[in-house]
Design goal:
3 helices; about 35% helix; about 90 residues; about 20% strand; 2 strands; alpha+beta
Amino acid sequence: MANLVGGTPALLGMPPHDWPKLHDPVPHAQVVLQDLAAEAIQLLEHANLIRPKFSYQGAVAGFGYITTRRGRTAIEENSVGRILAGGSA
């Protein structure tokens, strides 16, 4: 077991998981993955299966997505794929 006192992830042999900084090289695979995730979220949102959710806790703001009633029904009926392919719920 690694000693965590005073250790950093780099010293413990763990890869860094920081956000890229300005001018840091970004691997092409990461850009592709970000685009796929953004397009998937957009498809779900345009089909009214998810909606944005904003929250505040003190001075910290949060942003995410939650399912809509239509989305929860589509999950229960196993019809998400059909809806995204252009069918109805």
